[in-house]
Design brief:
By secondary structure, the chain is mainly alpha-helical. About 40% of the residues lie in helices and about 5% in strands. The chain has a domain of about 140 residues. The longest helix has 18 residues. About 15% of the residues have low confidence.
Length: about 210
């Protein structure tokens, strides 16, 4: 006997429906979704999630590259096979410190090659074919207060460049003394390509002893 017939009999309503009147179909009860349990054993870690919009220029903190340095140099701290911009031109670093270090190393090289001429440095760093070079130069010069610079001026030049390149609160993150000062220290050492921030710290500590 169906559930509905049982209920009708209990209520004294049996016979109200003729024998030729079909019973209404029962509504299916949806089952709760099953979790994908057991696909990975307990000792297998879940794979790390890839950051969303990794190559989206509106997410510069993912890159840790305040100066937008290119991947061509094989920088220490640079993540392999990863970049942003057209054809992954610009490097992604494992930490803000290593990205800042790369910027300072690049600037130090340009100080030597351009004889400390700030205009020439900025022209090579931000060529007119891609940047408002004159505006860039004037901005950095106003921050530094001179056109003839030395290696001692590199940290201040880096500060000016990262302020020009980055918007919002990003400059504050990179200019945090703990981050910036460590980057200055790391920039004074020749670090091999692929060395991580942790490895660089160990390397520098050994050199200091």
């Amino acid at each position: 006997m169906s559930t509905l017939s049982t209920i009708m009999q209990a209520l004294g309503l049996q016979g109200l429906l003729g024998a030729d009147v079909p019973m209404p179909p029962r509504r299916p009860v949806p089952l709760p979704p099953r979790r994908a349990e057991g696909l990975l054993s307990a000792d297998v870690p879940m794979p790390p999630q890839r950051p969303q919009k990794l190559l989206d220029s509106s997410q510069p903190t993912v890159y840790n590259n305040p100066g937008n340095v290119e991947r061509t140099q094989g920088w220490a701290g640079m993540l392999p096979d990863t970049g942003y911009g057209k054809e992954n031109r610009f490097a992604v670093f494992d930490s803000p410190q290593m990205g800042l270090r790369a910027l300072m190393v690049d600037l130090s090289t340009k100080v030597k090659k351009q004889g400390g001429d700030l205009r020439e440095m900025i022209t090579r760093y931000a060529p007119p074919s891609e940047n408002p070079t004159e505006k860039y130069y004037q901005y950095v010069k106003n921050k530094i207060g001179k056109n003839k610079v030395t290696l001692k001026d590199v940290p201040e030049i880096a500060k000016a460049i990262l302020k020009f390149e980055n918007k919002g609160d990003l400059p504050k993150m990179y200019l945090d003394p703990k981050i910036f000062n460590e980057a200055v220290t790391l920039s004074k050492f020749d670090l091999p390509s692929g060395m991580t921030l942790s490895e660089a710290r160990s390397f520098v500590e050994k050199k200091k002893k």
